[in-house]
């Protein structure tokens, strides 16, 4: 058991959400501050079923016909995502991004394929097949993951609900997720740097209680003492999606996605053996046409020597998104009497 500890500084600011870094924050402090990006959730919360779907749309058009430049970084590959191989090869994504639990990846991939075919009947016939893009974390502590409750209709609902207003915490794919022994889930944030906007959305399901660094404060010992949980090896995961309106090519987006790891590390993660830590970055500055007779975009990319502000914005927005997921988390009761408490409740107790 972890030793008991308390927070000595009983400042009222402990109950305010920490603000990461000094870069300007976008108007919504969300990934949707990147123009054109929308997010939708479908939440399943009924007894032992505590799970859901979150969908990120890079633009409102036909993503298969107007592909989006993208690249991913796998910090630790303990994961079951679909679509990363083709993104790595071609440097584009051609569906919205779907987030869910581990056992629902296949159902959402099929839903994405069906949606793409409905919009583009030539797929798989006159045209090539479509590359679904689904990421996952294991919500099996709170959710009866074996029930495989998530179906294609839940993807459709999340897609239809996509808007610029992003709910955070125990919603959508984040409903059953845990972080640092408390409630995790969906978090989002944005920063403005170098004249561009960088936004992040995370599916936070990682971290052991003793390792938490919260807005620069070392809370791990106090949190572990309050929870009195046995400290076990890292078994969680995190998916980090970074969007920007900066004109970057796929190689540069790969470099940007890597910097999500800097924001993740600041919260106390060491990308543990049993953790699937994956970041994907995409740009909305231009699209790549599917049809060869449509002209390719002539885009002047950001110079390599001017990427540092974007790197900083990616790290800050990812860290802020993780903090936001924790701060917005609510206590959830799930399968077999399992509970994950809200961090804010525990902070109030620690300050008492």
TrEMBL record:
InterPro entries: ArgJ-like_dom_sf (IPR016117), Peptidase_S58_DmpA (IPR005321). It comes from the Bacteria. GO terms for molecular function: aminopeptidase activity. Keywords: Aminopeptidase, Hydrolase, Protease. The keyword Hydrolase applies. The keyword Transcription does not apply. It is an enzyme of class 3 (hydrolase). SUPFAM superfamilies: DmpA/ArgJ-like (SSF56266). Its EC number is 3.4.11.19. Belongs to the peptidase S58 family. This is D-Aminopeptidase S58. It comes from Cupriavidus metallidurans (strain ATCC 43123 / DSM 2839 / NBRC 102507 / CH34) (Ralstonia metallidurans). The gene is dmpA.
């Amino acid at each position: 058991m972890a030793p008991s500890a308390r927070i000595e500084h009983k400042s009222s600011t402990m109950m305010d959400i920490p603000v990461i870094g000094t870069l300007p924050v976008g108007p919504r402090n969300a990934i949707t501050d990147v123009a054109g990006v929308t997010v939708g959730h479908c939440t399943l919360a009924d007894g032992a079923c505590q799970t859901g779907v979150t969908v990120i749309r890079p633009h409102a058009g036909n993503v298969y016909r107007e592909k989006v430049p993208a690249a991913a970084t796998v910090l630790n590959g303990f994961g079951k995502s679909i679509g990363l191989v083709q993104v790595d090869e071609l440097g584009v994504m051609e569906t919205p991004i779907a987030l869910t639990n581990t056992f629902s990846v296949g159902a959402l991939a099929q839903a994405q394929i069906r949606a793409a075919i409905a919009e583009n009947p030539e797929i798989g016939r006159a045209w090539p097949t479509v590359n679904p893009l689904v990421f996952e974390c294991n919500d099996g502590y709170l959710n009866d993951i074996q029930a495989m409750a998530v179906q294609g209709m839940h993807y459709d609902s999340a897609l239809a609900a996509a808007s610029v207003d992003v709910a955070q915490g125990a919603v959508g794919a984040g409903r059953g997720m845990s972080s640092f022994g408390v409630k995790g889930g969906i978090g989002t944030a944005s920063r403005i740097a170098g004249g561009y906007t960088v936004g992040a959305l995370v599916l936070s399901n990682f971290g052991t209680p003793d390792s938490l660094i919260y807005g620069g404060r070392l809370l791990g010992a106090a949190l572990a003492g309050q929870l009195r949980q046995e400290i076990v090896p890292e078994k969680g995961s995190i998916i980090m999606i970074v969007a920007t309106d900066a004109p970057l090519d796929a190689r540069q987006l790969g470099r940007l996605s890597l910097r999500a790891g800097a924001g993740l590390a600041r919260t106390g993660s060491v990308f543990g053996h049993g953790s699937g830590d994956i970041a994907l970055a995409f740009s909305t500055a231009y699209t790549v046409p599917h049809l060869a007779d449509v002209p390719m975009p002539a885009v002047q990319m950001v110079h390599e020597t001017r990427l540092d502000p974007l790197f900083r914005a990616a790290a800050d927005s990812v860290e802020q998104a993780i903090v936001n997921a924790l701060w917005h988390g609510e206590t959830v009761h799930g399968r077999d009497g399992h509970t994950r408490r809200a961090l804010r409740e525990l902070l109030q107790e620690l300050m008492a």
